[in-house]
Amino acid sequence: MKDHPLLFTTEMVKATLDGRKTQTRRVPIERYRNWKVGDKIWVRETWLLNGSANILRMQYKASDSEYRPDDKRWCGRLVSKHAPEHINEAQNMWHKHEKEIKGYDLSWRPSIHMPKWVARIWLEITGLRVENVQDIDAVEAEYEGIRRPKRLCPDRHDEYIGVKVIEFKISHMANERR
Fold first, then answer.
1. Among residues 154, 118, 119, which one has the least CA distance to residue 136?
2. CA 37 – CA 126 distance, rounded (Å)
3. What is the end-to-end Cα distance of the chain in Å, rounded?
4. Which of 93, 106, 27 is nearest to 59 (CA)?
5. Residue whose C-alpha is closest to residue 58's, from 124, 104, 109
6. Residue 122 and residue 5: Cα distance in Å, rounded?
7. Cα–Cα dist 120/107, whole Å
8. Where in the chain do CATH 2.30.130.30 domains reside?
9. What is the residue-wise DSSP string for 35-90?
10. pTM, rounded to two decimals
């Protein structure tokens, strides 16, 4: 079994956590050729590191909890508790961005820059197949997390655009230790 990173938008993360998204379609197909049923996916999502140099927290945009430095009730995942082996790396990241952090001008970090140790969502691949993007139907669109698709495909029905369909289930969340 292998671990693979996969970029998710904030909406895709929300749909996955809500149980509405159980598959994703990706191109180019070649990138996913070595993926197998049973492999794990760590979801890369928009995130942010904040707190202080001694108490660092990881926050996720899809969690709907806005960071406010004056709000003592706010809390994210503590690095020291959920990723203690990466505390030095987290502190280095913190010090690198200390200037913008002191002014509380914290900006979200794009999912592409999420290290594996920050990931909170782990998925298990339950199915893999290749299909034409035009073949998606309303049921499949719902599994993609789309609530009410108005139009599923563009009008170019004669063109084959192959996509890799990756079906998954949540394996575990980062609060649970593997």
1. 154
2. 5
3. 14
4. 106
5. 109
6. 9
7. 19
8. 3-43+119-173
9. --TT-EEEEE--EEEEE-SSSEEEEEGGG-----TT-TT---EEHHHH-GGGHHHH
10. 0.78
Does domain 3-43+119-173 fall into CATH 2.30.130.30? yes
Residue 59's φ and ψ, nearest 5 degrees, are: -125, 150
Cβ-contact 47, 118 below 8 angstroms:
yes
Q: What is the dihedral of CA 28, 29, 31, 32, to 10 degrees?
A: 140
Predicted confidence pLDDT, tens digits, the chain (178 residues):
899 999 999 989 989 988 989 999 998 888 999 999 999 999 999 988 877 666 777 888 888 555 454 444 444 677 777 778 888 888 777 777 665 555 555 678 899 989 998 899 999 999 999 988 778 777 887 778 776 555 555 555 567 778 899 999 999 887 543 3
Three-state SS at 96: helix
